[in-house]
Amino acid sequence: WFITDGDGDVQEVKGLGVVGQQPLLRSGEHFEYTSWATLPTPAGTMRGEYFCVTEDAQFFQANIPEFALVMPRTLH
Known about the structure:
By secondary structure, the protein is mainly β. The chain is built from no helices and four strands. The protein has strands at 2-5, 10-12, 43-53, 59-70. It has a four-stranded antiparallel β-sheet, with no helix packed on it. The radius of gyration is 15 Å and the shape is elongated. The two termini are 27 Å apart.
């Protein structure tokens, strides 16, 4: 993950799994989770990717497009 604060400073976060989990998803299944990021500014952005493996050991990357990180009640 790349987390960019409102000043443009970027922090890279790496780790195994999704919030410590490595879910096994079959076709049509989904996985949801909640997480957080600490920013020194009221707003920022986040983007990243998941590295995945199919049951037959094929690797692929799922890109997560940039999305906004905003403190509640700070945008007009």
